[in-house]
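Possible regression after last week's pipeline update?

I re-ran a chain I had predicted before the update to compare outputs. Posting the input and the new output here so someone can diff against the archived version. Not blocking, just want to make sure nothing changed silently.
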Amino acid sequence: MDLFIFLVICLSCLILLSLWNKSYVKGKLPPGPTPFPIVGNILQLYNKDIKKSLSTLAQEYGPVFTLYFGMKPTVVLHGYEAVKEALIDRAEEFSGRGSFPLIEKVLQGLGIIFSNGERWKQIRRFSLMTLRNMGMGKKTIEDRIQEETLCLVEALKKTNGSPCDPSFLLSCVPCNVISSIIFQNRFDYSDQKFHTLTKYFKENANIVSSPWIQLYNAFPILHYLPGSHNEFFKNFADQKKFILEKIKEHQETLDLNNPRDFIDYFLIKMEKEKNNKQSEFTMENLVISIWDIFSAGTETTSTTMRYGLLLLLKHPEVSVKIQEEIERVIGRQRSPCMQDRGCMPYTDAVIHEIQRYIDLIPNNLPHVVMKDIQFREYFIPKGTNIVTSLTSVLYDEKAFPNPEKFDPNHFLDASGNFKKSDYFMPFSAGKRVCAGEGLARMELFLVLTKILQHFTLKPLVDPKKIDTTPILTGFGSLPPFYELCFIPI
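New output (post-update):
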């Protein structure tokens, strides 16, 4: 056994040496901490606060440095200037989607979010066009959100001011809005299938942010061991089955001249390209695209709202100021609309500060360089994974003084007017910017405003004792469990 371990270590050293030699053929990879054989730098990051670890490494090695997750090099970009240069100034070169083994296992390079090349361009272009046809960014989608907020208020009233976990109800709005776009129908909040669907999204968000999945992504060989990845695969299989059932229903009632929703538009496109053997519009791509839209459009928004309410419980003076603004601009009877946002700078600033402070996706989705490039004084080979630290942008002290503090004044000028910031990148930036950014912004404003128009948020403990530290900070930053009381106004 000792001889075997010795041989494995020697082999790993040779592999690492060959990787380093390869990087010197055309230039030099950015500096970074010395990796261990086989495991790379994972031991220096695992089970720690990865965000803080990256910040510490950036202080030592600069804004561009290399880490090894296993035996594969990953270049980390830290700070606004480096992130902007890559994602915006050199967007095409950094437009590839990087490796995320857990997701790759189920998506197989299909869909919108984790596809690459011509497939990604075609499916993303089609999806954006179809979502616009379905009302994305228009008054029609605003009307749908407003209708859903009315249902949410009624459901919250039924809690009778008793303590409740808001997780499920907050996920209902974005999930039903997406459902109306994809399936042309919404679910009743008591529908068991609806409960199961939202449960899967929440469970999967917890799983992908766990330390185990960080290890799994570095060492995909762990796929063959027991672990939470198996629960993720099971949830995905059940979600896929649900989506296929919906597609089958649509196929049976499809009118080629009268598309009703996203599925119909995609099926019609499939019919038009049925003789094109290279067509990207296949049943597999339809299923994964739907899963992508649901995953990206449901759990991220509901988690932001859940975290947002926790921050408002922690800072009741902020809720009071929002409600004063609501009273002045909207009143008690009329539903909030997007036109109101321009007249509500404080509310707008609070929502931006919630997104900045919670730092929902700390290190962004992984990118990959599309060709051999020279970035600053370093050589980065084609296919190298790129981590862009959004934390380093959202918590930049130059843009947001005292960034560790939740403070809506980060987005207000001296006169109390809303102040935009180039450093506000919770949706990423460049060619891979979140396709649903406009929808998410709309939902956050309309839902949080509607809740505070009708309810006072009452914590179960002294606000000073509320801990807003995330329970997980892997792929996503997830808030701790809490309950509150919605007291009707």
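Follow-up from reviewer: compared with the archived run. The CA atoms of residues 122 and 265 lie 14 Å apart. Marking as no regression found.
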